[in-house]
């Protein structure tokens, strides 16, 4: 769970110098709150880790799938990050936010022709090609325009990161990328090296998410170099850019032991340098694309407690005014979170309760066996570390409107995404009945 919690003289949890109880009064609940200083610190941690290697060219792209909004993309730009997008919608958000297209990388295992077309129209910096169909589509679109585009090839390095099955991506049996082992990656390199339009700058891999050690990164890099060395001899291919993806872990709770950002970067850089040296190749640019570690611990969700149900000898359920619609991760990955009673933040944790969401689904449990102080309806619960894949995976199940998002910093709050209304929920519905609706 994120470091020290700040509590004011009223015994209220504060974030970025702002009283969380006041935030709920002002913006309602549930409410996502981002501590902007924390985001700044994380971006700086990457930049200072890389700056230890002055001869190296590197880029840190914020993986906007973790939390995409106009304000967040603008903040990423202000912090000197590039941007990773995985859909036309994330790209549109970035362009709307004024993010420089040349610093955007476009990912995805099934980019549509329309999405590729859009990316070329805005002069995107790099397209990370995932499969042979995409090579064909992109070649066709570039030829039509008589315009080249920078590309990386996403390869699966055959490494299994020790994480949840649904969020590991670098293993052989994956929907993403070209396999090194079965020869698909080599075939892709040959195809794009023959293209007049697809300018192959290098390779990309991403071994998974919420990773707590450096072994997977090192192994992936070593595997890649074995192939790079062959391709240098056989194909005269030289890799200018090696993008090793994201996946750096964060501390959702005390079971999680992430490494300092500099430890991951040192391991990545020294392995790339050693492998380049061993295979007598120039050191490529190193790109990383963290999402979770940039915004995860910066985010907190504030809820109001509502109903209670005690089953004697079994458990006490306490329900909040949100749930799996604003945080899908516990239901999807059995993800574990911790919580603080925000309006009684100095009180002792004397109760063990199960924090339930309000969706019509027995699996809508945000936290099993949460330790919190004695609470009552109307209290405010802060669920910590919800900044990554919270709002971005929020949904309208049971027609719950999506919560608002605020940024806080230096004692000030700023609304960055408005709360949805019931009207918003039916905005795109069309009437079936002949009678006018109300
Ligand atoms: C290709 C790619 N890059 C970057 C990320 C960001 O990962 P994380 O949020 O774990 O840093 C992901 C998500 O796992 C991804 O699939
Ligand atoms: N959405 C996932 C991670 C997948 C990241 C994208 N490949 C999570 O919440 O942990």
TrEMBL record:
Orn/DAP/Arg decarboxylase 2 N-terminal domain segment(s): 37-295
Alphabetized UniProt keyword annotations: Amino-acid biosynthesis, Decarboxylase, Lyase, Lysine biosynthesis, Pyridoxal phosphate
Pfam families referenced in this protein's UniProt entry, alphabetically: Orn_Arg_deC_N (PF02784), Orn_DAP_Arg_deC (PF00278)
Source organism: Terrilactibacillus laevilacticus
Keyword Repressor: no
Protein's name according to its UniProt entry: Diaminopimelate decarboxylase
NCBIfam families, per database record: lysA
Reactions mediated catalytically: meso-2,6-diaminopimelate + H(+) = L-lysine + CO2
Alphabetical list of Gene3D superfamilies matching this protein: Alanine racemase, Lyase, Ornithine Decarboxylase, Chain A, domain 1
Residues the record lists as N6-(pyridoxal phosphate)lysine modifications: 65
Physiological role: Specifically catalyzes the decarboxylation of meso-diaminopimelate (meso-DAP) to L-lysine.
This protein's pathway: Amino-acid biosynthesis; L-lysine biosynthesis via DAP pathway; L-lysine from DL-2,6-diaminopimelate: step 1/1
Segments forming domain Orn/DAP/Arg decarboxylase 2 C-terminal: 32-387
GO terms, molecular function: diaminopimelate decarboxylase activity
Amino-acid positions noted as binding pyridoxal 5'-phosphate in the UniProt annotation, renumbered to this chain: 247, 289-292, 389
Subunit structure: Homodimer.
Its EC number(s): 4.1.1.20
Cofactor: pyridoxal 5'-phosphate
Residues engaged in binding substrate: 292, 329, 333, 361, 389
PROSITE patterns reported in the protein's UniProt record: ODR_DC_2_1 (PS00878)
């Amino acid at each position: 769970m994120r470091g020290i919690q700040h509590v004011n003289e009223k015994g209220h949890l504060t974030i970025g110098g702002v009283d969380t109880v006041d935030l709920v009064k002002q913006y309602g609940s549930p409410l996502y709150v981002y501590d902007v200083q924390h985001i700044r610190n994380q971006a700086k941690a990457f930049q200072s880790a890389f700056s230890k290697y002055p001869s190296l060219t590197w880029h840190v792209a914020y993986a906007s799938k973790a939390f995409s909004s106009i304000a967040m993309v603008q903040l990423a730009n202000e912090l000197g990050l590039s941007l990773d997008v995985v859909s036309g919608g994330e790209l549109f958000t970035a362009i709307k936010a004024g993010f420089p297209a040349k610093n955007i990388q476009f990912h995805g295992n099934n980019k549509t022709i329309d999405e590729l077309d859009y990316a070329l129209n805005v002069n995107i910096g790099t397209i990370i090609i995932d499969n042979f169909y995409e090579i064909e589509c992109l070649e066709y679109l570039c030829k039509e325009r008589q315009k080249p585009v920078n590309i990386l090839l996403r390869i699966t390095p055959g490494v299994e990161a020790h994480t949840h099955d649904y969020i590991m991506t670098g293993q052989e049996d994956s929907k993403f990328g070209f396999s090194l082992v079965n020869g698909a990656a080599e075939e892709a390199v040959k195809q794009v090296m023959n293209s007049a339009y697809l300018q192959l700058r290098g390779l990309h891999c991403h071994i998974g998410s919420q990773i707590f050690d450096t072994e997977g990164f090192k192994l992936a890099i070593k595997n890649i170099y074995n192939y790079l060395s062959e391709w240098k001899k056989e194909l005269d291919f030289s890799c200018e850019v090696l993008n090793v993806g994201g996946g750096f872990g964060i501390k959702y709770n005390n079971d999680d032991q992430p490494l300092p950002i500099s430890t991951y970067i040192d391991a990545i850089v020294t392995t790339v340098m050693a492998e380049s040296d061993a295979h007598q190749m120039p050191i490529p640019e190193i790109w990383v694309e963290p999402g979770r570690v940039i915004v995860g611990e910066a985010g907190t969700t504030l809820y109001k407690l509502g109903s209670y149900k005690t089953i004697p000898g079994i458990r006490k359920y306490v329900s909040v005014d949100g749930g799996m619609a604003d945080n899908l991760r516990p239901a999807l990955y059995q993800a574990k979170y911790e919580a603080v009673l925000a309006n009684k933040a100095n009180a002792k944790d004397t109760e063990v309760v199960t924090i339930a969401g309000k969706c019509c689904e027995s699996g809508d449990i945000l936290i099993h066996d949460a330790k919190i102080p004695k609470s009552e309806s109307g209290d405010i619960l802060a669920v910590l570390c919800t900044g990554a894949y919270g709002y971005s995976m929020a949904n309208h199940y049971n027609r719950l409107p999506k919560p608002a998002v605020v940024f806080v910093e230096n004692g000030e709050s700023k609304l960055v995404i408005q709360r949805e209304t019931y009207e918003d929920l039916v905005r795109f519905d069309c009437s079936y009945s002949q009678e006018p609706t109300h």
